[in-house]
Write a structure and sequence with these properties.
Keywords: Signal. It comes from Cyprinus carpio carpio. InterPro entries: Ig-like_dom, Ig-like_dom_sf, Ig-like_fold. This is Ig-like domain-containing protein. By secondary structure, the protein is mostly beta strands. Helices cover about 5% and strands about 50% of the residues. The protein is built from one helix and 20 strands. A hairpin with a 2-residue loop joins β19 and β20. The protein is elongated and about 95 Å long.
């Protein structure tokens, strides 16, 4: 008799676990901005007396509900209209799909499934990451005054990023890294290398679900040769004069920490400098 009572108690405990979902369980989901995510209710089929609610955030904002008794599905925009035209509720499983997700959608979503025979609650901690920019590498290569050795100062930079790591790699070897986990900021990571080094360096920006990489071959790190374009035309001020004027433009691309100058003979005519990104 005692054994039968113990078996009955164990059966009841198992039955309760099956009927009442684990309210402490939180499922973490990581999503890229502008993608869609489906929050699975855990049901394969809704019962005839099921009532389903989806709520969002610490205020438990009601964003979707389904009632099998009244055959009703209601979707809500939210107080600030953030979910307008972006919610879809599966009428067979009660799963919720959020389209064109944004970083402001990060937070806890809760589903409550209630009927006479069961009460289930699941929570989803959704983190939405912004799409990553491609890092920009600027470089300054100069000869050492003590020897013919040439050194290169590299700077890898990104702007308006959050929850990311910026890293320098030499081949597959990690050299240095810097991380940020708060609000959007600008990040820069310097690196000193020797020009004679024939390895390829990479600057990698990553978060838990994506990455962007910029490669640099040090053998290509010397300053580029400036390109001069010209436009020469006869002067309109003197029809009898054979004088011809020329407009010259000297250009370079993808440079940082440099000065570009015009000289006439040995005399400096004009110059312009840049000390930030390429």
């Amino acid at each position: 008799m005692r054994k039968m009572a113990i078996k009955f108690i164990l059966f009841c405990l198992w039955h309760l676990v099956g009927v009442f979902g684990d309210s402490d369980e939180v499922r973490s989901l990581f999503v890229m901005e502008d993608d869609s995510v489906t929050l699975n209710s855990g049901l394969t089929e809704i019962q005839t007396d099921d009532e389903i609610e989806w709520r969002f955030g610490h205020t438990n904002l009601l964003i979707a509900e389904l009632s099998m008794k009244s055959s009703m599905i209601l979707l809500y925009d939210g107080d600030d209209g953030r979910f307008r035209d972006r919610l879809k509720l599966d009428h067979q499983t009660g799963s919720l799909t959020i389209t064109n997700i944004t970083t402001t959608d990060s937070g806890v979503f809760t589903v409550n499934i209630i009927s006479k025979s069961r009460e289930i609650r699941y929570r989803f901690n959704v983190t939405v990451y912004a799409r990553l920019p491609v890092p920009v590498i600027s470089r300054d290569c100069s000869s050492s005054s003590s020897s013919s050795q040439q050194n290169c100062s590299l700077l890898c930079s990104v702007v308006n990023v959050a929850h990311v790591t910026l890293s320098w790699y030499k081949g597959n070897s990690l050299l240095s890294s810097i991380s940020v986990s708060d609000l959007s900021i600008s990040l820069s990571l310097p690196l000193e290398v020797e020009y004679q080094d024939k390895n390829t360096y990479s600057c990698v920006l990553n978060n838990p679900i994506s990455n962007q990489t910029q490669h640099l071959d040090i053998s290509d790190a010397r300053l580029p040769v400036p390109v001069i374009s010209r436009d020469c035309s006869s002067s309109s001020s003197s029809s009898s004069s054979s004088q011809q004027n020329c407009s010259l433009v000297c250009s370079v691309v993808n440079v940082g920490h440099v000065t570009l100058s015009w000289y006439k003979g040995n005399s400096l005519l004009s110059s312009i400098s840049v000390s930030d990104l390429s």
